[in-house]
Amino acid sequence: MLEMVGLILWLIQIIFNHINFLLSKIELKIAKINHAKFLYVLYNYSIKKGFSKTIKKISYKNHLNWFKKKIKEKFTKIFIGYLGLKKIGYVRYEKISKNKYIVSIAVHPTHIGKGLGGNLLKLSIKKFKRNKEFISLFALVKKNNLPSHKIFLKNNFKLKNKLPKLIVSKNIKNFNCYEFRSRMI
């Protein structure tokens, strides 16, 4: 019996080490036009799952026009997460006022539940906040999107009781707001 317990613990340790190895291999790249289709697929997936403010799927033509503008904007930064050669998700930061940004994240459906989303967010925050004295990040998360709630809580976002005036808009009554505050390290 003790041998069986030892074997199980050994296997758990191997799995844990493998997961940590994979997480350490995530690489972030700045979004470019060739990432448009990937973001389009992830965004429409979030609509289908009911995780977005938008309730109808968007056309690729509309998405492409939006994406072309966003990757050129000075106040928007989109990171694409890679695990080896595979794209696993994206994190987008959009400035709403001085040192305040909205953050959104999407993970490819084949990678949901593997712990990659939390690490993707963590790495992107680290990269994004470089050279910034202070930042405040806000995330709107649909109340039924439990994986995203976990991702933001694991990354030191705090649930807000009230939505900041800057991000109040239509269709957000079913959303929770999280905030992350950071001083430059």
Please give a structural write-up:
With 185 residues, the chain is an alpha+beta fold. It has one domain: Aminopeptidase (3-Layer(aba) Sandwich), CATH 3.40.630. Helices cover 38% and strands 29% of the residues. The chain has 5 helices and 7 strands, in the order αβααβββαβαββ. It has helices at residues 2-24, 36-48, 60-72, 116-128, 146-154, and strands spanning 26-30, 76-83, 86-97, 100-107, 134-142, 158-160, 175-183. It has a 7-stranded mixed sheet with strand order 1-2-3-4-5-7-6, sandwiched between helices. Strand 2 (76-83) and strand 3 (86-97) form a beta hairpin. The radius of gyration is 18 Å and the shape is globular. The mean pLDDT is 85.
What is the CATH topology classification name? Answer: Aminopeptidase
Number of helices: 5
Helicity level: 25-40%
CATH superfamily: Gcn5-related N-acetyltransferase (GNAT)
Structural Rg: 18 Å
User: What is the N-to-C succession of helices and strands?
Assistant: HEHHEEEHEHEE
Number of domains: 1
Specify the CATH class: Alpha Beta
Strand neighbour order, sheet with most strands: 1-2-3-4-5-7-6
Overall 3D form: globular
Relevant terms:
185 residues; alpha+beta; Aminopeptidase; 7-stranded mixed beta sheet; 7 strands; globular
